[in-house]
Design goal:
Blueprint: H1 4-23, H2 30-44, H3 57-76, H4 79-92, H5 99-124
Helix pairs in contact: 1-2, 1-3, 1-4, 2-3
Length: 126
């Protein structure tokens, strides 16, 4: 017997990965691609809007943003396309975790924050 919470989290992780794969697929409509990339990047990123160490609120953003974004994304693409990418994501979930990928995502977020800070700082003294 498996834990229901673990099953839901596993399914959400698989669907987030499938959304990332589908968002990069040229058969996906442009609006769905945009939404999918934003939501999947947020889901796969170690950085949250509200940090996870804050009790209750830290997980609340993940509980709302991910399922809502996934639901919107799935409604915008053909079901067979998402099923194809879900199967690929399920197979990929059995592979070891990539530490290099996690480091790359953190570096990207740091670069984005640094660019925004630089942009805002330059406006202050312009």
């Amino acid at each position: 017997m498996s834990d229901p919470i673990s099953d839901v989290l596993h399914r959400l992780r698989i669907d987030a990965h499938a959304m990332w794969l589908a968002a990069r697929d040229p058969r996906t409509p442009p609006l769905a691609r945009f939404i999918g990339i934003i939501v999947a990047a947020y889901a796969l990123s170690p950085i949250d809007l509200i940090p996870d160490f804050i009790p209750v609120l830290g997980l609340l953003d993940d509980v709302i943003i991910l399922p809502l974004g996934l639901w919107i994304f799935v409604k915008l693409i053909p079901p067979e396309l998402f099923s194809e990418h879900r199967a690929t994501a399920e197979i990929a979930s059995h592979r070891p975790v990539s530490r290099k990928g996690a480091v790359a995502i953190v570096i990207i977020w740091i670069a984005v924050v640094a660019l925004l800070a630089f942009y805002m700082w330059s406006w202050r003294y312009w």
